[in-house]
Amino acid sequence: MVAKLNLVLLGPPASGKGTQATLLSEALGIPAVSTGVIIRGEMARGTLLGQKAKGYLSEGQLLPDRETLQIVSSWFGEFGCEGFIFDGFPRTVPQAREFDRMLSDCGHELHAAVHLDAPRRLLEKRILGRLQCVDCGRVYLEGSAGGPTEGDSCPACRGAVRRRDDDNLETFALRYREYEEKTAGLVRYYAERQILKSIDGQGSPANVFRDILAALGLASVDPSPGS
Question: Annotated catalytic residue: which of 91, 126, 138, 197?
């Protein structure tokens, strides 16, 4: 039986974090969560946090650390005790330090930070073709074999599949710059802690998934869960 790991996935926008989080969750039986999906849910419901987040996201900015950590703490208290996969969190070194303290207070620790890397030109291409389920957060590439198109139902949960409002080159440029300025420092932070696993994110989802499993010492796990 695979151990219940505590993982975070890092990488620039459109590097494949959401796709790999889903594959890992299904293969390892560990819940995966994206703070972005939670925040967009708040936006859809028109909550105070959602209204605040909408202003930041529309300008390609990250939600401030305080609000992000509130979301993470609430989710972790309810779902994270038997392993977890955070997609795109933490996004700043201060968030990472606070998350370490949060885990330590609960008697947990982070086992690995998986960093997905890919060239900017490929990321831009992915951004323009990315679709996402509004309910479960699964990510699909428009035009991929057997995948849904915009307006279809999600094959996994039957939710609506659509293009995100912030998936355009202008917003991508802002988010990419934000990543370089604030998030890229996490690579060094986790490397110094000796838990960083760097993965080439240019390959197919299946190949990237196999590389992640190998880096985690789990190469024997089925690389095509649910297929």
Answer: 91
Rounded to 10 degrees, the C-alpha dihedral 181/122/129/209 comes to: -90
* Contact between 178 and 62 (Cβ < 8 Å): yes
CA dist 61 and 76 (Å) reads 24
Indicate the Cα dihedral angle 26, 28, 31, 36, nearest 10°: -70
H or E segment to which residue 161 belongs: strand 161-162
Is the pLDDT reported for residue 224 higher than 80? no
Catalytic entry in 126, 130, 138, 197:
130
pTM as predicted: 0.78
Active site includes 17?
Answer: yes
164 is catalytic: yes
Examine the residue annotation and report whether 138 is marked as an active-site residue of this protein. Answer: no
